[in-house]
Known about the structure:
Largest sheet: 4 strands, parallel
Radius of gyration: 15 Å
CATH architecture: 3-Layer(aba) Sandwich
Strand order of the largest sheet: 2-1-3-4
Mean pLDDT: 94
CATH class: Alpha Beta
Amino acid sequence: MTRILVDTSVWSLALRKKERSQSEEILISRLSEIIRDIQLVMIGPIRQEILSGISDKTKFEELKDKISIFRDFEIHTRDYELAAVFYNECRRNGVQGSHIDFLICAVAHNNGLKILSLDNDFRNYQEYIGIDLEETRSV
């Protein structure tokens, strides 16, 4: 069974947005399946993004506790190095992205993980670097 690295965009939809479209509900259902089937992979930078911007200390602690059940997948030097290679390759081809996005791509690539994201930037990256995206119905 393929493990799936779930990007911050999906977590934000699941944890923060109350009103959802039907297609967003389908994505949340897929996230639930990934969690239930123990396919989910969490990395520290995504945990940081999920928790960033929550000014209410009580809500911050509640969310921190909820996601604490997911252990951080270990990131190695080779992941950071490949992230830089991916960044440079995409930039050379006119595609911009964040350093965390490219770290997500590198960790996924190096460990045979799929990426689940709402961020279309990952589709742009996929044209130039070896990443595998988890396909879902359009959201």
